[in-house]
C-alpha cells in the first residue's frame, strides 16, 4: 500500500506520468482538483478568501474568479502566503481523507498524490516515495508556449515563480527525465510502476527503500 507523491514544475509532464500510472491501476488523488473542491461555492474556504482578498472575486453563482485571484497573488509573496494559509490546511485534510478512503477500499492499492506544491507545502508528509518529473526550464517554457498558448514572457514568469528544479530534485527518491520523447517518459513510468507494484506484495518500505532522500 505505497503512498507516492508525484510532483514537478509547470510543463514538466507530471500529468502524463499520472495518466500512465492510472492506466496501470494506480489511484490518483489530484491536488488541483481538491483545491477546486474546497473552494466550491458556499465553502468556508471560499468565504475566507473573499474576506481576505475581496468579495468582488465571487462571481455569478458564488463561483470563485480564479483568474482574478491569480492576478492578485501572482508575483506577490505576501499575498500568496495569505492565500496558502487559507487553502493548504483544507487541502491537507481532504487529501488525507481521500488517501484513507482509497486504502480502505483496497489495502493493496498504489495511491499517487499528484501535487504541484509538494516542496512548498507537503514535503514532510509520510510518503513512501517521492517522484519528480524533471525537464529543463527552456524545454518546459517551450511546451507552455506551444501547447498552452502562453507568451514567452508569461511562460518564463510562471516557471520563475515556482520553486527551483534543484529543490525538487533534492527531495526526490526517483527522478523521471521528461525532456526526451513521450515514449521515453512512458518507459520510465512503466519501470516505476513495476517497482510500485512489487511493493504491494513485499511490503512498501522494503521494496521502495529510502531512495535518495
UniProtKB/TrEMBL annotation:
ATP binds at residues 11-16. It catalyses: 3'-dephospho-CoA + ATP = ADP + CoA + H(+). Gene3D superfamilies: P-loop containing nucleotide triphosphate hydrolases (3.40.50.300). It comes from the Bacteria. It is found in: Cytoplasm. GO terms for molecular function: ATP binding; dephospho-CoA kinase activity. CDD domains: DPCK. It is an enzyme of class 2 (transferase). The keyword Cytoplasm applies. Its main location: cytoplasm. PROSITE patterns: DPCK (PS51219). Its EC number is 2.7.1.24. Pathway: Cofactor biosynthesis; coenzyme A biosynthesis; CoA from (R)-pantothenate: step 5/5. Keywords: ATP-binding, Coenzyme A biosynthesis, Cytoplasm, Kinase, Nucleotide-binding, Transferase. GO terms for biological process: coenzyme A biosynthetic process. The keyword Isomerase does not apply. InterPro entries: Depp_CoAkinase, P-loop_NTPase. GO terms for cellular component: cytoplasm. Catalyzes the phosphorylation of the 3'-hydroxyl group of dephosphocoenzyme A to form coenzyme A. Belongs to the CoaE family. PANTHER family: BIFUNCTIONAL COENZYME A SYNTHASE-RELATED (PTHR10695:SF46), DEPHOSPHO-COA KINASE-RELATED (PTHR10695). This is Dephospho-CoA kinase. It comes from Microbacterium dextranolyticum. The gene is coaE.
Amino acid at each position: 500500500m505505497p503512498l507516492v507523491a508525484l510532483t514537478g514544475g509547470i510543463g514538466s509532464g507530471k500529468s502524463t506520468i499520472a495518466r500512465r500510472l492510472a492506466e496501470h491501476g494506480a489511484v490518483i488523488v489530484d491536488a488541483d482538483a481538491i483545491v477546486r473542491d474546497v473552494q466550491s461555492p458556499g465553502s468556508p474556504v471560499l468565504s475566507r478568501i473573499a474576506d481576505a482578498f475581496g468579495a468582488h472575486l465571487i462571481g455569478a453563482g458564488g463561483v470563485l474568479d480564479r483568474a482574478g485571484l491569480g492576478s492578485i497573488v501572482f508575483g506577490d509573496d505576501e499575498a500568496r502566503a495569505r492565500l496558502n494559509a487559507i487553502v493548504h490546511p483544507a487541502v491537507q485534510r481532504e487529501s488525507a481523507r481521500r488517501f484513507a478512503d482509497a486504502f480502505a477500499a483496497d489495502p493493496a492499492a498504489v495511491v499517487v498524490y499528484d501535487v504541484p506544491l509538494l516542496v512548498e507545502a507537503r514535503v514532510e508528509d509520510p510518503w513512501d516515495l517521492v517522484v519528480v518529473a524533471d525537464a529543463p526550464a527552456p524545454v518546459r517554457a517551450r511546451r507552455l508556449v506551444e501547447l498552452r498558448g502562453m507568451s514567452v514572457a508569461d511562460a518564463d514568469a510562471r516557471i520563475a515563480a515556482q520553486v527551483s528544479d534543484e529543490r525538487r530534485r533534492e527531495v526526490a527518491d526517483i527522478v523521471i527525465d521528461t525532456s526526451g520523447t513521450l515514449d521515453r517518459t512512458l518507459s520510465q513510468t512503466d519501470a516505476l510502476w513495476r517497482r510500485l507494484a512489487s511493493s504491494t506484495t513485499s511490503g512498501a518500505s522494503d521494496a521502495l527503500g529510502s531512495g535518495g532522500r
